Amino acid sequence: VHAASGADLLIIASQQPLTSPDWTVVNAPGVQEDLKRNYPLTPVAFDATRIADRASLAPLLDTWQTVNSDYYPIVDLGAERTRFLKTRAMGFLGTASDRFDIISLYNGTSRVLPQVQQSPAEMPRLMKAAYTERVRATVNGQPVDSTGPGSFNGVPVSAWEVQTFEAHMASGRLPVSWRQWATTLTFVDGSLHAASLGAVDEAFYGRVRAYLDRVKAPDGPRRAVQFLYGLGTLNFAAAAEATTFLEAEFKANRNWVDPAVLRNAGVIARLKVGDVNGAERLLDAMTQPAQREDARTLLLKAYVRAIRGPVPEKPAGS
Fold first, then answer.
1. 3-state secondary structure 277-305
2. Which end of the chain is less congested by CB atoms within 10 angstroms, N or C?
3. Mind listing the pLDDT tens digit for each residue in 175-204?
4. Which residues pair with 9 in a beta bridge?
5. For 24-49, b where at least 16 C-beta lie within 10 A, e where not — what string?
6. pTM score, whole prediction
7. Cβ(210)–Cβ(191) under 8 Å?
């Protein structure tokens, strides 16, 4: 399954095993001529459009009760209901744009994208990767391609937040609100690492930790840092440990990270360290009614079932 754009999925299926795609087709003269007005589409760029494969979806699809068909058009009926209710079915596409998408986390997939400041339009990960490069270039005083989306007077909007956050840490002052500081940290982390996974800017996180030590920060922001850094580096043990604190704080109406990120990524982190019961409790506690049919919720539940195994049936009369 590929995210062909910000609103379209391309599904490639076969009764026979699918081989890895040969992206060198883009080098064919005819394709080159067709794409000459687009930004370069490289094999790495095409790979970035992939959001799922059969193995990623098997825990959900293998338990699906009814197959879509002309006689039972689940997809058509679902689309009509969604339009009538004026809601949006963005679950699968969300996995192509989420900072910590659950499929990549579940697979433990590292992702490093091209370091270019422009990208093909409407390809979510590539657009985020290009924006990240423009933010980094701005913060580091390097030339910036000011024609990209998300810029104001030629400057990526997020660069101002990054610079302000860095300047505040350098000043050594306490924040007015630690919870607001943690919210800003999440935003800045996304601005610097929007489409990458498996590696982070170590120098940035070194400055963050040094600042927290210097001002003797409380547990909340420290655990937020542990959670984001653990996920960004695929250190699931660290992320799962931080999840325990953050979940308790959420129940006390103190949010240190985005609740959606805590739920989605926290469930995966716990599954990766073998805490199936903890993952299920977190998923049940943090799933809102509007999220119950979201593709990410269905996948998370399927991942829990796949690792836990079937629940034994109780004997009759028990």
1. HHHHHHHHHHCCHHHCCCHHHHHHHHHHH
2. C
3. 999 999 999 999 999 888 887 888 899 999
4. 3
5. eebeeeeeeeeeeeebebeeebbebb
6. 0.86
7. no
